[in-house]
Amino acid sequence: MPGLGHPERPERLTTVLGALEGAPDASWRVVPESVLPPQQDTLGVLKWVHDEDYIDSVRKASAAGSGWLDSPDCAVSEGTFTAAVAAAGLALQAGLDMANGRLWRGFVAGRPPSHHAERARARGYCFFNSVALAAEVLVQAWNRPVLIVDFDALHGNGTQHHFWFRGDVAYLSVHRWPGFPGTGAADEVGEDEGFGTTRNIPLAAGSDDEVVCAALEHGLAEIAPVVQPAAVIVSAGFDGFSDDPVGELALTESGFRRMTAAIVAAAERWSEGRILSFLEGGFTDEGLAAGALAHVEELARKEKIGTSSALAVN
After folding, report:
1. Is 116 one of the catalytic residues?
2. Label partner for 226 (CA 20 to 30 A): which of 8, 20, 102, 149?
3. What is the tally of structural domains in the chain?
4. Which of 6, 50, 115, 116 is catalytic?
5. Exposed, middle or buried, 7 (CB in 10 Å: 0-12/13-18/19+)?
6. What is the pLDDT of residues 16-51, one digit of tens each?
């Protein structure tokens, strides 16, 4: 546990799984304790997105049992390393399952979150970048590009930096600006082979459903035809809710539903509907539950997926 009063608390998962338990029409299946790859396999693949010395620093900080790593917002406990590796293991397994045709669409509810984690630095409650890991699994398995869509209220600096010079993984983010972590300006577009495959749409604090959703829809319309992704990966942060202490946006349940519908439409157009979504932020029980439920309901709409029980929730 990260400590009393820390926003990124274990109860976040209880809230999400409670909200998603028992789909009334069996349109999704909750797997509360998914089988994980062996820890050593996950650690081996984590070297694709993190330096080996950094992985060891997370291990050592966790073994110390208290304190923080790299920045005060990344509090550690004896269970931090195990939890962070398990979250990465979920991403690895989901990526492998999609690559091998066993999973077509899924929402992975793991913690700690991931999109702030840099290659050699913990930041913003994030230790290992599960989203980047899943993207690497799919790109290396298929040798085809993927698109990461990030609608967390805070910019995913770690994910952006992982693929800054790459043309095979595109990154689209809508987020509050200015604010933590200080990245995500509109002129940050990637370099070398990655030039043009990063698209940031910074928005003012207080932006509501219409502003945020229109921005995401516009960004998708711009970048998806360029990338033509084989799969869409989502950093699904629900800290944009109006009552969230972190996000400072004014989104409602309807906004998260509309953004998800736009992502689904893009995936249907370019990726045969394949989507892997990962829980990022969201720090009030009400907003987290309502946002996650709206997101999963839209991912699992039968008229969009054409079959029941097609969405797995881990």
Report:
1. yes
2. 102
3. 1
4. 116
5. middle
6. 999 998 776 778 888 877 889 999 999 999 999 999
